[in-house]
Write a structure and sequence with these properties.
The chain has helices at about 1-15, 40-50, 110-120, and strands at about 20-25, 30-35, 55-65, 70-80, 85-95, 100, 125, 155-160, 165-170. With about 200 residues, it is an alpha/beta fold. The chain has a single domain (about 1-195), classed as NADH:ubiquinone oxidoreductase Nqo5 subunit (Beta Polymerase, domain 2, 2-Layer Sandwich), CATH 3.30.460.80. The chain has a 5-stranded mixed sheet. A two-stranded parallel sheet has the order 6-7. Strand 1 (about 20-25) and strand 2 (about 30-35) form a beta hairpin.
């Protein structure tokens, strides 16, 4: 299988010299690394070429590499039923640059790109309806970014008096957003709440 994937990777890299940076085969999976602005051309080739025929889109997802200049990767998974092969295509982008939409070629990409926008804030140019998909319209932030707080920024609940859903800033009974990173095995250099009762015991 790896030999088949290697031949396919070399074939694609030869045909798309300027569009594909390189390819890898890891654990029996072929991954292409493409230029962001050329993603539609790459996907069109993978869809149309007789040696490829990746006509089915399985998934598009985002990955956040906080701290990198190109913070996000958009990862495309395609299937070729004719060749019984799968391929992964990756492009890098940042918080402001637009990734060309692939919805004209793969209509099924519509909701996948909306999800990547909703969860990561990745922007797609040429998308017919780029709006939030899983969160509410008034939602603040992007939940799958590494710097998004686990508790979120606001909480919502139904107010019986107002007869509607209302938003309130999150109030934590305990501070979860700051960590001292001290080892629980070695003990802290301060008294934990409740431990003051143990003071003086031997």
């Amino acid at each position: 299988m790896d030999e088949t994937l290697k031949e396919l990777g070399e074939y694609i890299a030869l045909k798309l010299v300027d569009e594909v940076k390189h390819f890898t085969i890891v654990r029996g999976e072929l991954t292409l690394f493409a230029n962001r602005d050329d993603i539609v051309k790459v996907m069109q080739f993978l869809h149309d070429d007789n040696q490829c025929q990746f006509i089915s889109i399985i998934d598009i997802c985002g990955v956040d590499y906080l701290g990198r200049e190109m913070r996000f990767e958009v990862v495309y998974h395609l299937l070729s039923p004719v060749r019984n092969l799968r391929i992964r295509v990756k492009v890098e982008t940042d918080e402001e640059s637009l990734v060309p939409s692939t919805t004209d070629l793969f209509p099924g990409a519509n909701w996948y790109e909306r999800e990547a926008y909703d969860m990561f804030g990745i922007l797609f140019s040429g998308h017919p309806d780029l709006r939030r998909l899983l969160t509410d319209y008034g939602f603040s932030g992007y939940p799958l970014r590494k710097d998004f707080p686990p508790s979120g920024y606001v909480e919502l609940f139904y107010d019986a008096e107002q007869k509607r859903v209302v938003y309130k800033p999150v109030k934590l009974t305990q501070e979860f957003r700051t960590f001292d990173n001290l080892s629980p095995w070695e003990g802290t250099d301060y008294v934990l709440p409740g431990d003051e009762k143990a003071e003086g015991k031997t």
